[in-house]
Amino acid sequence: MSGQLSYNYQPPLGIAGTLTDINNRSIDSFLNGEANPYAMKYGMGVVQGNNPGKDVLIPTASSEAAIFEGIAMSNLTTQQTMDGKVLVRSGETIGVLRWGRAWARIVPGLTIDREDPVYLIITGLDAGYFTNVDGDADTISIKGTFTGKVGTGDIAEINLRNQMNE
Description:
Blueprint: E1 26-32, E2 45-48, E3 55-57, E4 68-73, E5 79-80, E6 86-87, E7 93-105, E8 117-121, E9 130-131, E10 139-150, E11 155-160
Parallel strand pairs: 1-3
Antiparallel strand pairs: 1-7, 2-3, 2-4, 4-7, 5-6, 7-11, 8-9, 8-10, 10-11
C-alpha cells in the first residue's frame, strides 16, 4: 500500500490587487472606464479617466500629463470566465488604492530592491504595470517605493504615498 508523500500545492505569495497588511490606507471607488472588459487587471496602475473623480483608465502614451489615481484593487465580486480570465467589466465599480501597501503588477523578470523608486509604464504592452526603471517618455514617476517583497508571478509590494498631499 502506498501513500502520497509530497504535497506540491502551495498558495501563491501575494495576489495582484490585494492588500499586503492592515496598515493605514486609502481606497476610493471608481468606475472602470475601459471599453474592453479584459483590458483592466487588478494590480495595475490607473490614471484619471474621461470623467475626473468618477472613472479610471489604463495609462496610454498620452497619459504623461495624466493624473495617477492609484492601484486597481480586487474585490469580492471578481468573476472569471470559463477559460480562467478575470473579467473586470466596463463600468464596474472598483477600489483604487490611493495610498498604502498592495501587491502590484510589475514588468516580467524585473529585479526589485527595497526602497527602489516606482514608475508607471504608459506605453506598449506593459502599460499599467510598474517598474523601478525611469523610461523617460514611457513612464511617469509615482510617489512611493518598492518594499523589496516580490510575490509569486510578476507582482511586488508597493508602498504608495499620498499622491495629493506631499
